[in-house]
Amino acid sequence: MHNLSLGELADRLAGRQISSVELTRHFLARIERLNPSLNAVITVTAAQAVDSAAAADRRLAAGERGRLLGIPLIHKDIFCTDGVRTSCGSRMLDNFTAPYDATIVARLKAAGAVMLGKANMDEFAMGSSNETSYYGPVKNPWDTTKVPGGSSGGSAAALAARLAPVCTGTDTGGSIRQPAALTGITGVKPTYGRVSRYGMIAFASSLDQAGVFTRTAADAAAVLQIMAGFDPNDSTSVDTPVPDYPALLDAPLKGLKIGLLREFFDGLEDRNAALIHDALKTYLSFGADTVEVSLPHLPLSVPTYYVVAPAECSSNLSRFDGVRFGHRCAQPRDLEELYKRSRGEGFGAEVKRRIMTGTYVLSAGYFDAYYLKAQKVRRLITDDFRAAFEKVDLLVGPTTPTPAFAIGAKVNDPVTMYLNDIYTIGANLAGLPGLSIPCGYVDGLPMGLQLIGPHFSEARLLGAAHQFQRATAWHAHAPGGYE
Amino acid sequence: MIHRAYFCALARIFDTHMSLTRQDVEKIAHLARLSITEQEMPVYVTSLSSIVDFVAELSRVETSGVEPMAHPLDGQRQRLRPDVVSESDHHEKYQLNAPSVQAGLYVVPRVIE
Questions:
Q1: Where are the domains of chain B?
Q2: 3-state secondary structure at position A168
């Protein structure tokens, strides 16, 4: 059951060959058996899941049909879930029970999806390896000495280990695409504003976007169809109609112009480059054309991001003050000590580092030199993308510079860690949709092919990914022991 | 500012060769209302300095006449909604998460003597 596509599962549920309760118990049993060695899921909502599945079965019995009706899923623990602990991977929120559902949680619930639990993540989504979580690192199911990527590392590892057929995630600088690449699965980051962020704990508000992990692009299309759309509760949510993503998966790719980013291939390791070129041959066989393009400012993405994102983080995380919710230190002498010690104890090292970086670049005397400068370079990078999309329909390249690295290898060197996101950050700065799909192996570990498109081109990206997956089998491979 | 810059420069030459001094990090931590322990402090001086050095690369980029970009979707306007009540009172539910509440109010250490 755990290797079936969402379409196959929906058919079996509709045909009453399986019930949602059976399906839910199957995945709960896998979580119980396989999660202890992965640490991918930090809250299991078993009783609630079985109740939701029974409710889905009643809707199915009454003749209702839906792509996600009765389908189990796991939410990244950044999304508020009414009545369920929502920790954001932090000691700060270890005691926090969300009082309402995030919009995407409510939408998926209304569609009949069954929440199995909440996934581990880098603390407040700050990390590229899922090592900054208060709940300990997540292990990569392909090799448990390796990281699964981050920040949505728990979601990616859970999906790759077949603990659920759908996991949600968020992507601020690559936090869906990078872990999808390192765990051999499909991860989709939609256009900024395409999916509501209401009830998604904020990290960097001009970059954050919610998305999804699945095994295939066709599955992702079915989930995104329900997640996407206008939400009056999110002031950055965009009020444009949501296309029928599943219906558009087979739109012909003949004549599609694929841009090869010179900056993505400069210095790319040979074996990684070979995988990308093999993938391009598949696209050429569909009748697509390739065009080389250059985005001269793209190499500045990482320093730009590491000014903009910490600045926004320092502002967003000022709400955690030990007064209204979250961790409060014991016996503070006065209000200032209450703030300082509650925050000092509640936040981990990387979160404190980013808050302080952001505080510094926003402080008097440094604002123009760092923050305003970064916002200007952000525009130059965005203009480069815009110019490229006048010549090509989408951009193709690697998702990450290397396969999954060893747990502990980069924890003491933040700048080296930040460079993991060198290929993914550009799309966040420009608000573009992107996705990662598996395209082969380096050193026996999965690698990702990244597709980036213009704003609101999700249908084309999903179609291009789907047709690649019909012609290849990388996405069907499961890590050993999780087949 | 000149004095501060001078002393920072001196500190850099004589103490640490870091682009941020311990005093800088203490000030930043205070602005961010974060308590930093003695053991953590040298780690932050080193790592924040390396981040500041890393992002300093941006200063070499020519950006005269470039409009700063605050929102990734140009032309997107922040919406206004009609000023009507849309939420009911949930304060009791919300305050279940509060560390200390009395009579519907959040309790903090005494602020006024």
A1: 2-60
A2: strand
Over residues B17-34, the pLDDT tens digits come to 579 999 999 999 999 999
Q: What is the largest CA-CA distance in chain A?
A: 70
Q: For tokens 């916002």, name the residue.
A: A375
Residue ranges of chain A whose pLDDT lies below 70: none
Residue A91 tokens read as 């000691």
Question: CA A105, CA B58: separation in Å to the nearest integer?
Answer: 39
Rounded-to-10 torsion of CA A360, A362, A365, A366:
70
Cβ-count burial of B92 within 10 angstroms (0-12 exposed, 13-18 middle, 19+ buried)? exposed
This complex has an ipTM of 0.92
Chain B residues in contact with A360 by the CB 8 A cut-off are: 20, 24, 28, 48, 52
Using a CB–CB cutoff of 8 Å, tell me whether B109 touches chain A: yes
Q: A338: which residues sit within 8 A by CB, 6+ positions away?
A: A321, A322, A323, A328, A329, A332, B108, B109
> For chain B, what is the mean pLDDT?
85
Please check whether residue A312 lies inside any domain of the structure. no
Bridging pattern class, strands A72-76 and A257-261: unpaired
> Nearest CB to B72: which of A356, A376, A431?
A431
Distance of CA A457 to the CA centre of its chain: 18
- Nearest-10 Cα torsion for A56, A62, A67, A73: 0
Examine the pLDDT at B7 and tell me if it is beyond 70.
Answer: no
Q: What is the CATH number of the domain that holds A93?
A: 3.90.1300.10
Counting the structural domains of chain A, the total is 1
Name which CATH class applies to B2-60. mainly alpha
Distance CA A337, CA A123 (A): 23
Give dist(CA B101, CA B109) in Å, integer: 12
Q: Which of A133, A129, A35, A128 lies closest to A93 in space, CA to CA?
A: A133
Give the helix ranges, DSSP H, for A133-199: 153-160, 177-183
Of A133, A175, A314, A436, which is the active-site residue? A175
Q: Is residue A459 part of a domain?
A: yes
Contact call for residues A148 and A183 (beta carbons, < 8 A) = yes
Q: Which residue has the tokens 């639990």?
A: A117
Q: Which position among A19, A20, A52, A151 bears the catalytic label?
A: A151
B70: chain A residues, CB-CB within 8 Å: 206, 375
Q: Which amino acid is at A237?
A: S
User: Is residue A356 included in any domain, yes or no?
Assistant: no
Question: Is some CB atom of chain A closer than 8 A to the CB atom of B103?
Answer: no
pLDDT at residue A413 in the model: 85
